[in-house]
Amino acid sequence: MPVFPMRDPLVRRVRVAAAAAAAIAAVPGSPRAGGLSRPNIISARGVGMGGAFVAVADDPTALHFNPAGIALIPGSVVLAGAEYVYAPRTYTPMSAQCDADPEFAACQPQSATVQQPVPVVGWVSRLDDDGVPSRLAFGVGAWATFGGRVEYDRFVDDQGRPLDDIPAINRSSNFTIEVVPGVAYEVNDVLALGFAFRLGIGVFDADTTARPSDAVLSASGIGVAATAGAMVKLSRSFRIGVAYRTPLTNKLTGDGTVDTGREIAVDVKVDQQW
Question: pLDDT by residue (tens digit) across 57-115?
Fold first, then answer.
């Protein structure tokens, strides 16, 4: 959960109000936050094959699904692709003013449509000796593992002036990009082993109005994890694959402001877990 310690001593009332605003704005640091409650696909083929891809893993996304697979890729391979996210989002503001006047324009459901590409890149190479591929392979990949960003139009009155008393989510981001170097070794014609190091780069920000105070918060940071895998090739058409990914927790830090009648500077800390 996010923690927002104050830089300066404040009275209890202001501390509680600021903490509440930050907590409401910051939503739990998990892949369900940030407006996009979804993991990203990384490989359409891998997802389409389900768990069976762990035993195939024959392109650079093997660094995610089963790094042992890169030992079975001949020569060098470059992968470049993208997942296109189209995600309509809607929320309805809640406030005493909306309870009293539900027809008020700023109390109607607010909509936004996220449209963004999510790139996937990777490279794998096997060393060779006089044109004969060695049993050692290495590679690196980068992809956005989860999350995204959503932004809503700000509430304005009939003259286009901002409305500062309607609780609203103006913007929310929470996502992780992973950079994944890895190595694999073909022990023999039957067994291959692989290991990948996962560097998570996390980003979080939130901009809210009157929830219960205005808050603008941002943080970024890194985390580390790993993936290990093995592949057993029993015949040309039958393989067994196993893989294990450790949990990834990005430690994000940053700063922001909470407005409870006067602007207060806060430190932002978020544990972004995946």
Answer: 989 999 999 999 999 888 899 999 888 888 888 877 776 777 777 777 667 777 888 88
d(CA 72, CA 122): 16
Residue 68 phi, psi dihedral angles, 5° rounding: -60, -25
Distances (CA, A) of 206 to 81, 171, 255: 29, 6, 11
**191 C-beta neighbours (distance < 10 Å), count:** 14
H-type helices in the chain, by residue range? 12-26, 44-48, 62-65, 96-100
Can you give 149-187 as a three-state secondary structure string?
Answer: EEECCCCECCCCCECCCCCEEEEEEEEEEEEEEEEEEEC
Which of the 8 DSSP states describes residue 6?
A: B
Q: How far apart are CA 206 and CA 162, in angstroms?
A: 18
CA 274/CA 269 separation, integer angstroms:
16
Q: What DSSP character marks residue 99?
A: H
Which residues, other chains included, contact 202 with Cβ-Cβ below 8 Å and sequence gap of 6+?
175, 176, 220, 221, 222, 223, 250, 252, 270, 272
CA distance 4 to 217: 10
Of 267, 260, 250, the residue nearest 178 (C-alpha): 250
Sign, CA dihedral 120-126-131-133, equals: negative
* Residue 37, token pair as written in the block: 């409650």
Which residue's structure tokens are 């996009």? Answer: 36
Beta strands in 27-157 (DSSP E): 76-91, 110-129, 132-151
